[in-house]
Structure to design on (139 residues):
């Protein structure tokens, strides 16, 4: 008897030059001054991804501002919103943060967001995030 594997479910969902490697990017430049507690939704990462690291860059926001990057479920369901990708850190001066962490297995679509705290972001304040990982597909 033969063992037949039908359909595409046993194939990698994407097979480019770098295999299933993926990068999700988001950029925002404030048209008007941002206020304390503003949340900027930067990118959507699909279900079936595994996030392994990030690169976050920002302009000088002045005052006593801090910036944190996290994720939440796109559909608004509970969970994830307290999960930091980049912990809150000073964004008074321009800077960047590069980090790796235990993989985040994305079980349903998530939104990568940045939150401003401590003081308002000035006019034209900027934030840029790249999240790296691999798309492995949903079970």
């Amino acid at each position: 008897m033969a063992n037949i594997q039908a359909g595409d479910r046993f194939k990698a969902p994407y097979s480019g030059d770098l295999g299933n490697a993926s990068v999700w990017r988001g950029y925002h430049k404030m048209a008007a001054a941002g206020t304390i507690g503003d949340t900027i939704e930067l990118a959507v990462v699909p279900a079936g991804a595994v996030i392994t690291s990030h690169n976050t860059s920002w302009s000088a926001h002045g005052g006593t501002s801090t910036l944190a990057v996290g994720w939440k479920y796109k559909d608004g369901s509970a969970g994830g919103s307290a999960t930091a990708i980049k912990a809150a850190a000073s964004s008074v001066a321009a800077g960047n943060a590069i980090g790796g962490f235990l993989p985040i297995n994305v079980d349903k679509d998530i939104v990568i967001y940045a939150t401003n705290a401590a003081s308002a972001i000035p006019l034209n304040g900027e934030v840029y995030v790249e999240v790296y990982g691999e798309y492995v597909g949903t079970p």
